[in-house]
Amino acid sequence: MTESNGRSTPLKIKEELDDESNLMSLEKLDHDSPHMWPQKVDRFSTPNLNFSPPAWTKGLTQDDINSMYQLGALSANGIIAEVKKLYDQAYQLGVQEAKEMTRGKYLNIFSGSRKKT
Questions:
Q1: pLDDT tens digits for 58-114?
Q2: Are 78 and 70 in contact (CB under 8 A)?
Q3: 20 φ, ψ (degrees, to nearest 5)
Q4: Where do the H-state alpha helices sit in the chain?
Q5: What is the C-alpha to C-alpha distance for residues 50 and 32, in angstroms, rounded to an integer?
Q6: pTM for this prediction
């Protein structure tokens, strides 16, 4: 409690002293030392190092896996942008293929009459 002049009353000081005694721990830490019982600590502290990659990752390169993680981190708008980019690339590839097919027709590469020997 505080008085009107800002000083603490004896009741407030007594409460603070009581709180400090409640914070005291009487636990002794030497009975479960890792030096005395290493088998208990080692069992929980060593990670499982027998990690094998999932079956679906067989045949994938590290670049493929990195690309998957990058795509997985995208937001919905980011995925939409990636799909649009793929559509644009597929369209451009189709245009290039059509040009090459037309060029092949003009050069008579795809003639159906072959001489059999």
A1: 889 999 999 999 999 999 999 999 999 999 999 999 999 999 999 988 888 877 655
A2: no
A3: -65, -35
A4: 10-22, 38-45, 62-72, 76-106
A5: 29
A6: 0.43
